[in-house]
Amino acid sequence: MIAGLEQPWRVAFEEAWASWVAGNFGIGAAVVDPADGSIVSSGRNRVAQTEREPGLLSGNMTAHAEMNAFAALDRFNAEGLHVYTTLEPCIMCISTSMLLKVAHVHFAAGDEFYEGLDDLWGGHALTRERLPAATGPFTGEHARLAAFARFLPMSFTLRHFPGRTADQRARTEHPELAALIDELLADGSIDDLRTIDTVDTALATLWPRLPR
Ligand SMILES: [Zn+2]
Fold first, then answer.
1. Which residue of 54, 77, 88, 185 sits 20 to 30 Å from the alpha carbon of 118, by its own alpha carbon?
2. How far is the centre of ligand 1, averaged over its atoms, from the C-alpha of 187 (Å)?
């Protein structure tokens, strides 16, 4: 599962789980210095979280995992740094990555909602130059971890935005995940998962049911 991956992934997945347990999209991110592999900052999606904490984004759609990791930076920008995130960055987070001069984005799961976005950035000299290198999604032996990373935000979408474009696109792209989420929503067991403390236990619980 997470063991065997680089340390930033553990941080990102722990943030993602804490985000999901608290009723958010369930996405986590870490900013890393590639020179020594140290974690510079981390953040989680807090869009549905109404209590405010100083220095953190919460309670609205600016409160994405990457944005919170950026907000926690103790330096002017993220020049040369890498971002590890459990879900492919959205239009806001990749734009901010370019503004902050992030060098490389690593993502565990793809987001079909933003497919083709890179074509857009190629149309302007600044964004063409600033677009970070990208690695992802996980495949092969880590494909089920990618499914878990997609499961968390997708379950939020299917629960709270049924019938919307994001729901329809996710269902078309991930029919097996959609079936699993529908089952967990129908019998209410999705809320039992929220009582699980650690991402490792959550992964062990869901692992046999995740598509490969
Ligand atoms: Zn985002």
1. 77
2. 30
Closest C-alpha to 81, from 2, 8, 4: 8
Angle between helices 7-21 and 143-160 (to 10 degrees): 20
List pLDDT tens digits, range 152-195.
999 999 999 999 999 999 999 999 999 999 999 999 999 999 99
Please tell me the distance between residue 88's alpha carbon and the centre of ligand 1 in angstroms.
Answer: 8
Rounded to the nearest integer, the mean pLDDT of the chain is: 96
Which residue numbers are catalytic? 66
Angle at 148 between CA 39 and CA 16, to 5 degrees: 40
> Which of these, 80, 82, 54, lies nearest to 68 by C-alpha position?
54
What is the radius of gyration, based on Cα positions, of the chain? 16
Annotation: CATH topology of 7-140: Cytidine Deaminase; domain 2 (3.40.140)
